[in-house]
Amino acid sequence: MPETVDVAVIGGGVIGLSVARELRRAGVEQVAVLEREPAVGQGSSSRANGGVRAQFTTRVNVEFSAFSIAELERLDRETGLLGFHQTGYLLLTGTEAGERSLRSAVELQRSLGVAVEWLSPPEVLERVPFLRADGLRAGSFHGRDGFLDPHGVVTAMRQDAERLGARIVTGAEVVAVERARTGFEVTTGDGTFRSRRVVNAAGPWAGRVAALLGVDLPVAPVRRNLAYVREPAGPPGALIPMCVDLDTGVLVRREVSGGFVVAWSDPDDPPSWDTTLDPRFLEALGSRVGHRFPLLEEVPVDARQCWAGLYPETPDHHAVVGDTPEVPGFVQCAGFGGHGVMHAPAAGRAVAELVALGRCDTFDLRPLRPSRFAEGDLVVETAVL
Ligand SMILES: Cc1cc2nc3c(=O)[nH]c(=O)nc-3n(C[C@H](O)[C@H](O)[C@H](O)COP(=O)(O)OP(=O)(O)OC[C@H]3O[C@@H](n4cnc5c(N)ncnc54)[C@H](O)[C@@H]3O)c2cc1C
């Protein structure tokens, strides 16, 4: 006999686990997370850098961040699992156009209650003395941003979801979803579930899951790379803000145990399922990192200490959160690009409200609605790293 649940969540990454946890908190009775791997959190969530920031350029992303930061702070206090270091994010620019965009982003963030500081070059150097300040015009800084351990977030979300009574089924690859008289029939390699609603939280695979119901969902996998660079000399220095050189796209943070994690994303990378390190990444990094981080320019990057993973990307760099007009009850929660770990609490809350109340009161989800692609009505997030 198929098992009957209220909501089947496809995908046990940080998003699916957060959705399950929030559904139970909202009083939805039978919640099952269906994850194809033997353990949860093995997809994109296992490759993330752990950055958390409120410094986005659209209202919905800033609001998702503000909500999520508060929830991540609370979860870290309660569980001690997140390793949330609120070092702040420091965004830097040396161009006139960059300064204009940064200033308008800061105005938006402040208008939404996020306490972002505007820093002059000397103030930037006070925070990170080893930066090259040549040509620097300004920086923006938000002290509640920072970085955490993505595995810790997955563990905390899983534990809380289970404690609240959600069922997490691993080794359960969803191979078919069909509409039934009162909802859906979800077939896994390991059994069938009848479900009133289905949530698509399959990360980079969300397009494939949507296709099981004939739905066209433009979430594409895009390979992203990270490098660990050892401390150039001497003992590890103090933690620094997550520094983002907006002029080159290079992002640098110091690890708690010393050394630096360095990232750079090529905006022109095409979709790909490849998760091996892209050799072009090391070249690109080499030519860019010295622009603001001369300290790291001469340190060799060991390819064995680099890794890559997939961003679940959308054309406008916004997630897709909402019911599917052509298949009511099939709720999308995917496409979080490079901000899925940090936005997981908000994503979970949004879906839980949609399911439990039939509407979302906490956020205006219009910019994230699935139908926007067909309507050609996209608002683009430009602060993508
Ligand atoms: C290099 C890199 C750096 C990043 N840095 C950051 C960062 O600093 N901050 C941040 O917030 N985010 C970051 N991200 C992005 C973040 O990792 C993702 O946005 C987030 O993990 C997406 O979570 P998810 O649950 O949607 O996807 P996933 O974690 O991929 O989970 C989806 C799950 O669905 C499962 N699944 C797929 N198909 C099926 C099926 N048919 N049946 C059952 N299960 C299925 C998969 O096995 C997987 O476990 C980074 C990503 C990468 C690659």
Plain-language structure description:
Helices cover 29% and strands 26% of the residues. It is α/β, with parallel strands linked by helices and 385 residues long. The strands form 3 sheets. Strands 1, 2, 8, 9, 10, 11, 17 and 18 form an 8-stranded mixed sheet that branches. An 8-stranded mixed sheet has the order 5-6-4-13-14-15-12-16. A two-stranded antiparallel ribbon has the order 3-7. A hairpin with a 2-residue loop joins strand 17 and strand 18 (327-334). The radius of gyration is 21 Å and the shape is globular. The structure holds flavin-adenine dinucleotide (FAD). Flavin-adenine dinucleotide binds next to helix 1, strand 12, strand 16 and helix 9. The site of flavin-adenine dinucleotide (FAD) has 42 residues, from helix 1, strand 12, strand 16 and helix 9.
